[in-house]
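Q: Sequence in, structure out?
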Amino acid sequence: MRERIKKVILIGAAVLLCGCAYAVFHIKTGFGVPCVFHLITGWNCPGCGITRMFASLFRHDLASAFRSNAALLCLLPGLLALAAYWIYRYIRYGTQRYPKAAEAVCWALAGIFISWGVVRNLIGM
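A: Exactly. Output:
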């Protein structure tokens, strides 16, 4: 169990460090990763605006974060809860699989997120 805790902390720290480095780079330079889907089609994919959303959250600007990607902002608490549950199960039991109910929630959140990609283009957001 101690090895799994060390692994989770190491991976979590690496992800957090990379995310913070990217956020600082984006805030300081204004450059972000371009959306290939948007460049090709001119439509917004479900993920368009994620970088701006997180940058807005770092500035504590909730309204701007909502305008950047409303779906992900609303789904974020559920995604964080699922991640925490996955980490708990991995540390406690050594398993990386979700139970059927949690897997269904994952699919539902993915469906909502993809539906958002369609809706945002229909309403012109």
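The CA atoms of residues 23 and 29 lie 10 Å apart.
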